[in-house]
Give the backbone structure.
Amino acid sequence: MTGPLSVEDPLLRPVPFLSSVMQVEPQWIDYNGHLNMAYYNVMFDRAIDELWFKLGIGPAYMRERHGSTFTAECHVRYLREIHQGDPVQIAIIVIAADEKRLHTFEEMRHASEGWLSATSENMTIHIDMRARKVAPFPPDIRARIQAVADAHAAIPRPDGLGRKVGMPTRTA
């Protein structure tokens, strides 16, 4: 899965990548009766793994070409509670990419009702697993990623992109 993407490939449409629909598992519910914050990241990570597979940077890439990705930074916003058994689908936009990094934005939505539960903005780095250091993507992978980033450039930028953690400022 490392050749160039065909013009018909769904990844090249100016729409977010959509993950499979996932279910919130019972063991992920905390004492507040909703999805524990750690498991939002599990679900976001599972969705990213689906996109990475389509891009050719999944488990086979690591085994055969000794490259992988690590998350360097992540900012999650929890906007609405999600509960046990709720169906969840995650939309992913490739915001930007360069020779060593991928900037993505993910939206977790209730799969049947459509409301937004959480977002995750991430900076992912490419790793040479033999050296365990940041390294450029191979040219074929870089071209696949850039093609998706270019297609996603036509998507309106999502609300919350570039947010930072901080106390609200008071106005006099």
In short: The helical segments are 37-55, 59-65, 139-152. The CA atoms of residues 78 and 118 lie 5 Å apart. The longest helix spans residues 37-55. The chain has a mean pLDDT of 94.
